[in-house]
Amino acid sequence: MSISLSPPKKKVSEQQINAIINKGGKTTVESIDKPLDPNSTKSIKLIMTVDEMEMIKELRDRRPAKSRSRKITISVHDWVIEAVQEKIERERRKYSIQ
User: How far are the Cα atoms of 25, 47, 51, 60, 80 from residue 54, in angstroms, in the given order?
Assistant: First the structure.
């Protein structure tokens, strides 16, 4: 196996470095100035304490069954979405937002 020397390093001037820095760049996805579809979805990261999560599970499990023959519980995710929707509706009425 032969060993070769690395190519000589070019000296880059401070002016060239500043030109690259100041050139700016583009995002990987171009932003579009058109309005978003109101039915499109966005996701968020939700962080809560263990106690809060346990309380949600307990409240969810105590919800009356929709059918007498079988108790079908909703997921924690759906429970949180339902709670957020209820809060939005209360605040919307409170501040008279259509």
Answer: 46, 13, 5, 10, 13
* CA-based nearest residue to 61, from 74, 49, 48: 74
What is the C-alpha to C-alpha distance for residues 20 and 17, in angstroms, rounded to an integer? 5
Output the six-digit token pair for 5.
């020397």
| pLDDT on residue 8 | 76
Alpha helix (H) ranges present in the chain? 14-23, 50-62, 76-94
DSSP state of 39: T
Lowest-pLDDT range of 9-23, 46-60, 65-79, 84-98 = 65-79
Tokens at 41, concatenated: 């979805």
Residue 3 tokens, joined? 């060993």
